[in-house]
């Protein structure tokens, strides 16, 4: 019988630290296939990662960690790793998530600290031994089609006519064009409040003081549009903030980019369109991914996040006439179908009691 990956990971760590045994405590994982464990040696905490090589981009993690570290961004230290086995040992950033700290009262100050990281990420060097993928037209279309396949088809059983499919494709083409016309930079690709850690949480007072943020889950970084990471942060798939707050913080980002990365000739109207349509593309993709995580990967927790992503699509598409079909599709077909599915689920559960 093959040795389990957990026992192989324990053996690998014991060999590195020269121990007879080690105790790993499983942590809640992310949406991918990686598994995380916490352990300590002589009071020093560490994170062990089991990332199956054919399902996890481990070389990317190692290489991108190095270039972000060179930018003085707080990323986990890599203590040791084995790409062949898919094992990593990292420094431990603790349990204080940025998302858990945020309130309406403190979001301006705290989000500005997060936004300050974005010029550093955008200006990162290209990794030496790993070619960053490009967020090109094929890449963006592929992500948009996750919405069609997994949310419309698999989850809601919505069958579009040939004309409707053509209209939806036209909307996707608008989103693709928006992504490609922007300045292309290094982008994290999942820069949101759950992927930022507060490193000095014991020092943070009620008024926040100066928070130190750590960045995790950066292995899917690509070369892509300059507004992708900021819209991921401000129009988060897991929390929705008032529009006036988002607008002010986005303007802060634009000013910062003008200074740091020398984009002074971009009008505020252009920045806003890029931001809006980039968010649309991300939310289209995310709503499909949440359905895929349920049906393909048996991860039920993300279904609850679909309504929020759809609300962003409805709100923003209403501002752009070229996206009117997508607006009507989500508002009049997708959201009602999702509500009906939820009612049937509740009714089934009630009858089973």
Describe it.
By secondary structure, the chain is an alpha+beta fold. Helices cover 50% and strands 12% of the residues. The protein is built from 12 helices and 9 strands. It has a 5-stranded antiparallel beta sheet, with helices on one face. A two-stranded antiparallel ribbon has the order 6-9. Strand 4 (78-82) and strand 5 form a beta hairpin. Helix 4 (107-115) runs parallel beside helix 9 and helix 7 (162-181) crosses helix 10. The longest helix is centred in the last third of the chain and has 29 residues, at 324-352. The chain is globular.
SSE blueprint and pairings:
Elements: H1 5-17, E1 25-27, E2 35-41, E3 44-50, H2 58-70, E4 78-82, E5 87-91, H3 98-101, H4 107-115, H5 117-122, H6 137-155, H7 162-181, E6 184-187, E7 196-198, E8 213-215, E9 222-225, H8 228-234, H9 243-260, H10 268-295, H11 306-317, H12 324-352
Antiparallel strand pairs: 1-2, 2-3, 3-5, 4-5, 6-9, 7-8
Helix pairs in contact: 4-9, 6-7, 6-10, 7-10, 8-10, 10-11, 11-12
The number of strands is: 9
Euclidean distance between termini CA atoms: 41 Å
Can you list the strand order of the major beta sheet?
1-2-3-5-4
List low-pLDDT spans. none
Task: Return the string of H and E elements.
Answer: HEEEHEEHHHHHEEEEHHHHH
Strand percentage lies at: 5-15%
Structural class: alpha+beta
Which shape, going by the Cα principal axes? globular
Measured as a percent range, the helix fraction is 40-55%
**Biggest beta sheet summary:** 5 strands, antiparallel
The helix tally amounts to 12
Using only C-alpha atoms, the radius of gyration works out to 21 Å
Mean pLDDT figure: 92
